[in-house]
Specification:
Blueprint lengths: L3 H6 L5 E3 L8 H9 L4 E3 L6 H14 L4 E6 L5 H11 L3 E5 L7 H6 L3 E6 L2 H10 L4 E4 L5 E2 L5 H11 L4 E4 L5 H9 L4 E4 L13 H9 L5 E4 L7 E4 L2 H9 L3 H12 L2 H6 L23 H16 L2 H15 L1
Parallel strand pairs: 1-9, 2-3, 3-4, 4-5, 5-6, 6-8, 8-9
Antiparallel strand pairs: 7-11, 10-11
Helix pairs in contact: 2-3, 3-4, 8-13
Length: about 325
Amino acid sequence: MKTRVTELLGIEVPIIQGAMARIANASLAGAVSKAGGLGIIACGGAPLSWIEEQVRIARSITDRPIGANVMLMDPNAAEVARLLAELKVDVIATGAGSPANYMEMWKEAGIKVVPVVAQVAHAVRMERLGADAVVAEGTESGGHIGELTTMALVPAVCDAVSIPVIAAGGVADGRGMAAAFALGAEGVQIGTRFLTVDECTVADAYKERVLAAKDSDTIVTGRGSGHPARCLKNKFSRGVRKLEADMEKNGAALEEMYLGSLRRAVEGDVDNGSMMAGQVAALVHERGTTEQVIADLVAQAEELSTLGLEGLAAERARRAQAR
């Protein structure tokens, strides 16, 4: 499991935890880094004092690398960017824009920069800016998404850039991880699978909805506003989709519904909150610790990589019989 991603980021296994807003705090990020991956603290919309506190807590959990993210469409992005440079976090992930204004500052602080991209052209621009790696995120992901699937996006990005590519979207177990490597990626970013681990601090009601999800239980809202996001189906998401049928008439009502919706979900209101989750929620069937999840992911991916086509067919038959 040693790749250019592990060497670049100074981690043991090429698993990066997705920066899930209001979810990825020091408890989760610290646990992922302690287990050998890279934990990322989600800074989008967070006060600077909270960010500083979370970085401090994560560093008290582990002395291994810790990352943080900057949502570049955030009105406070510049302040967050400067704070993270001062804190000298090991890695900064970016999304929703170009980090061009901050690259020099981050590089001077010795920080690795890993933007999330949803198109080949964006990946190429990030490499030219000096990004150390990119996360190619397919539309299967939870939260804000692009249009291309992981299967189409990852190999196209791998062909277009020379820096390491990390695959995101549709990875919840070792099968997804092995598939990502077959597409050319040298690491994976995982979000939904970490929603149910012990160290994730979302309400149990949210975790139980993820565990109960079927393959058809996610929905994309926000297409009408130009900011599509994938979440679990519930009263909130269905209501949003209904109002989105007439954006001009219902714009104000939609804004009111969105306000605080993620916080409500994280705190346990699974009817009126936005429960961000990817399509692979249907593959998440159990809880467990972060350490157990990462160990299982790596063990399964390593086993599958040695089986060959006949071995893979036999493994699939064994799983079908076990069901």
